Amino acid sequence: MGRKIIFVGVGLVMGKKIPFKLLISREEALNLILKHVKPVERKEKVGIEELVGRVLAEDVQANISVPSFDRAAMDGYAVRAEDTYEATSTKPKILRLVGVSTVGKPVKRRLEKNECIQVATGSPIPPGADAVVMLEFTEKMGETVYVFKPVYPGANISPMGEDIKKGETILRDGDLLTPAKVGVLAALGRREAYVYEKPKIAIVPTGTEVKEPGSILEEGQIYDVNSYTLISVLSQNGCKPVRFPPIPDVFDELDKFVKNLVNYDMVVFSGGSSVGEQDLLEKVVKKSGEILFHGVQIKPGKPTLFGLIDGKPVFGMPGYPTSCLSNAYLLLVPAVRKMARLPPKPKQVVKAKISQRIVLGSGREQFLTVKIQDGKAIPVFKESGTITSMTEADGYIILPVNLDVLEKGEEVEVTLLE
Amino acid sequence: MGRKIIFVGVGLVMGKKIPFKLLISREEALNLILKHVKPVERKEKVGIEELVGRVLAEDVQANISVPSFDRAAMDGYAVRAEDTYEATSTKPKILRLVGVSTVGKPVKRRLEKNECIQVATGSPIPPGADAVVMLEFTEKMGETVYVFKPVYPGANISPMGEDIKKGETILRDGDLLTPAKVGVLAALGRREAYVYEKPKIAIVPTGTEVKEPGSILEEGQIYDVNSYTLISVLSQNGCKPVRFPPIPDVFDELDKFVKNLVNYDMVVFSGGSSVGEQDLLEKVVKKSGEILFHGVQIKPGKPTLFGLIDGKPVFGMPGYPTSCLSNAYLLLVPAVRKMARLPPKPKQVVKAKISQRIVLGSGREQFLTVKIQDGKAIPVFKESGTITSMTEADGYIILPVNLDVLEKGEEVEVTLLE
């Protein structure tokens, strides 16, 4: 064994056994992913009660004005403004009450000089009236109304089309339907709208040792965790995840599987992407498509693979629960949100002081889960195999690849997990 | 008309026609609401694929350890650590390969001196072995393995129970099920869990003029907007909203309705709570229960009512779409999240400079919708009747009751809308 072994960086050996030929940075990985992920084009009609959070797939032109008539913006009396100009709190103007305009029964009669008509908020303004005096500034005695304050023309009236003008394009293709935008559709009388379909994502656990929850474990076996964390993350990010039963680490089985993905917009494997599993997934993807990267410069989460089969994105997520979930947040979520046409997820970032000295130097970016307590960020990361590294975390810190030591008390930015 | 009218504050007249006897501050209103809203007690069993975002209604004790066996944390060779102590990169230790432990087929044979067994990440560690040498630091030639680096006992092994110890209470009643917590349930082999039911909220539009979307409007009529904005907001906040068709502003109809609410945890009326509608809802609630407040010191949104019927919370939201929706965010969301046992909604706040001078002095707090552009907060509020005041907004500012003028360029805190 006279062979010379040269260590480059940490954990990466130049020689025969390079585990990942080329680790790419998280940023490069994300750029590659986003370059190859296409927004879903399929549309579906959805009822108004289910529209919130969906992405509109049509331009919405107002077919009516809202309001569709001039209406009172206040409770009071519809008047001709000029009849009130001399009113004061001690010398009121005296008007004659000639009717009541209600939402159910609008008054059609034209208002004449020194007349008024009682209105409630929302009532149609009768012809001839051009203002509303608020109830508070009046006093009614039988058919007589005393007005204690002048109003200008237009006062307390919501003119027709104030909110939405007929013909106006009020919502656009691609709009995320917030509660207020759903309200606009309702205001126009819409009962449904076209939205983009949610991307259908196949979730595929791999590994001979991976068993269905509910089954009995034999030695060496574990329950499938990644499918359920992935389903959870994807359903929170506008997707329709569909889970498959675990596939053993056998080339032919995986190969057969990837030939049947025509109904899905994306496939996410978990497990099967680290060296010990003989790069099976890489071989399978290479056979039917292309690998865009395999190995990301982040810890945990290195053995992540991304490729295309028939132009369809294929993710190979690490088998370890924490690595799988952290890369789901960092790489998968941006991908599926683009696919679902959703804006990037808003980040909740808080500053905190790290509670202990951390020595790095893995040659990779580090994703470190922390708990926040009294303004301190306390690392809770145990090991990338442990799902509890994530459950106990309030958020995570990303430590740059070239950081050597983080001293106790240094300020860090914690991205909160939901 | 010699009667003296005294103005107190703005818009509030002391005398016969006080529109709301007592406006309470938003803070007081919120405290009263939260005091009277009770978390839902009913539980339901939900399948693991639907658990994310739900609130756990049981303590979860680990019925197994995770992992349930000592396993390799790296690809490499299981060894007795002491056999490697003298290895160097130029003088490797020589071990004899006596088997392969895979997840499917664990090795039962005890490891003897200077033996090793090949393992992949996740493989069970064979008896006698106490460490794993990473693949990168080895070289295999037939049955011989060269080890170029020593390992300490325990190195690269995830011991049984490292993640979760059998018997440990790993999740608790009241926990919000994040993707990671769903993962913990999966790791324990759970297929379902008990969670608290979503609060069932009756959404009831009132007003003779309010019509169903899809119907034909006559003069003076408008489509029901508030039901759909409320349904949207409530379904985004852990509730199950159920909408009723509009009820006309008629005492008997409302009175009959409130007697039939036994299946709902809360009732939210919209419209029917301003003076013009003769305080109908207030009368209806008073007859069967009690009013806790009617009138909030906020603009828009003053005519908001809160009461109890048979201990059940009843909201009367303003009829105007913006007022209804803004108070839904400010008052209703905290209420229903408490009911659903969800933590307070995280607020996304950004700082911006107000783009124009704003003169206040309504005697109420002001909820002002703004658009954010180039670090400037540009008011987009039109009028409380206009739903588009909300659709064009990125967020809102709350201006305090005692603020007179906000000068152009002053910094404001904008709470982002989703």
Output the keywords.
alpha+beta; Molybdopterin biosynthesis moeA protein, domain 3; 418 residues; disordered N terminus; 4 domains; 6-stranded mixed β-sheet; Molybdenum Cofactor Biosythetic Enzyme, Chain A; homodimer
Explain the overall architecture:
Two copies of one chain form a homodimer. The first copy, chain A, is an alpha+beta fold and about 425 residues long. Chain A folds into four domains: about 20-40 and about 200-340, MoaB/Mog-like domain (Molybdenum Cofactor Biosythetic Enzyme, Chain A, 3-Layer(aba) Sandwich), CATH 3.40.980; about 45-65 and about 165-195, Alpha-Beta Complex (Molybdopterin biosynthesis moea protein, domain 2); about 70-160, Molybdopterin biosynthesis moea protein, domain 3 (Molybdopterin biosynthesis moeA protein, domain 3, Beta Complex); about 350-415, MoeA, C-terminal, domain IV (Beta-clip), CATH 2.40.340. Helices cover about 15% and strands about 30% of the residues of chain A. Chain A has seven helices and 30 strands. Chain A has helices spanning about 25-35, 180-185, 225-235, 250-260, 280-290, 320-340, 390, and strands at about 5-10, 10-15, 45, 60, 70, 75-80, 95-100, 115-120, 130-135, 140, 145, 155-160, 170, 190-195, 200-205, 210, 220-225, 240-245, 265-270, 290-295, 300, 305-310, 310-315, 350-355, 360, 365-375, 375-380, 395-400, 405, 410-415. In chain A, strands 9-6-8-7-11-10 form a six-stranded mixed sheet, with no helix packed on it. In chain A, strands 18-15-19-23-22-20 form a six-stranded mixed sheet, sandwiched between helices. In chain A, a hairpin with a 3-residue loop joins strand 1 (about 5-10) and strand 2. Chain A starts with 5 loop residues before the first strand and ends with a strand. Mean pLDDT of chain A is about 90; it is low at about 1-20.
